[in-house]
Each structure stands twice: as structure tokens, then as C-alpha cells.
Design brief:
Number of strands: 6
Shape: globular
Mean pLDDT: 93
Number of helices: 4
Largest sheet: 6 strands, antiparallel
Structural class: alpha+beta
Order of helices and strands: HHEEEHEEEH
């Protein structure tokens, strides 16, 4: 059973706790959809000032297809190289965008989104998907968020 937690420590301690919670949620489960669903729900209750968190999974023809998420309905297919998610996937790099409206080719799935962070999920040197988090605030995501969200993704990929 999972209980909502009051994250009242430093941001670093809070991220360490949420990563520990992720490990507990994933322990003994190898179903991709179940694990991504719980991971998106965990991040949704942990992170403040976000309006969308979820996953896009790599499918045939170098495109990302919508996976488990929390938030408003989203774009279903994103070609590699398009928008923040597709660019992150194509280049296998984390993108932390302070103002998505300044990003060339940004795909606006939710008009309320103003900043975004996208972290590739890499297994066996292959991008198998991305974690995508949007915020209605500009410049919402810090270097600390990026550091710990990469660790979160690394733990998640171990269970995929």
C-alpha cells in the first residue's frame, strides 16, 4: 500500500526519498505498463507546479508513441527529431527547456505548458522512450531536478 508523503526535507533529500519509493514500487514487477504507470503517478504526486508527466515509447519508424501519463490528453505520435521529446530521443540527450515557446518546432499538446524537461530512457545503448514533464511555469526545472530525474530514470530502466 502506498500513502501520500509530505516531502518536507531539502530538494535533494526529497528526491532521494522518491527514488527509494520508486524502487519499492518496482520491486518484483516486470510489466512495462504497470511500472511506467506507477512511475508517472509517483512523480505527479511528488512534483509541484507541473501539469503533465508521462512517457513516450519508441516504436517502429523512429517515432515516439504515447505511454502511461498523468495530465490532460496528449499528442499520440511524435517523430524523432520533432519537438522537445522527438529531439531528445533523436539526439539521446536530456533537454531542459525554460520557455517551450522559444524552442524551434515545439509541439503544443497542452496550451498551459511553458517549460519542459525530457529525459531519454536508454537500454542497451538504445533510446526506448522518454520521460516528459511539463510545467505551466517558465523555467520550472533546475539542474537539481535534472540530476535527480536522470537518477529516477536510471532506476526505472533497470526494471524494464
Amino acid at each position: 500500500m502506498f500513502n501520500s508523503v509530505n516531502y518536507s526535507e531539502s530538494i535533494e533529500k526529497n528526491y532521494e526519498l522518491v527514488i527509494k519509493q520508486l524502487k519499492a514500487l518496482l520491486d518484483g514487477e516486470d510489466d512495462l505498463i504497470a511500472n511506467l504507470s506507477n512511475a508517472s503517478a509517483l512523480l505527479n504526486q511528488f512534483l509541484s507546479d507541473i501539469n503533465w508527466v508521462g512517457f513516450y515509447l519508441t516504436k517502429e519508424n523512429n517515432q515516439l508513441v504515447l505511454g502511461p501519463f498523468q495530465g490532460l490528453p496528449a499528442c499520440v505520435r511524435i517523430p524523432f527529431g520533432r519537438g522537445v521529446c522527438g529531439t531528445a530521443a533523436a539526439n539521446n540527450e536530456t533537454l531542459r527547456i525554460a520557455d517551450v515557446h522559444q524552442f524551434p518546432g515545439h509541439i503544443a499538446c497542452d496550451a498551459a505548458s511553458n517549460s519542459e524537461i525530457v529525459i531519454p530512457l536508454v537500454k542497451n545503448d538504445e533510446v526506448i522512450g522518454v520521460l516528459d514533464i511539463d510545467s505551466p511555469l517558465k523555467d520550472r526545472f533546475s539542474e537539481t531536478d535534472e540530476k535527480y530525474l536522470k537518477q529516477f530514470v536510471d532506476v526505472l530502466v533497470e526494471y524494464i
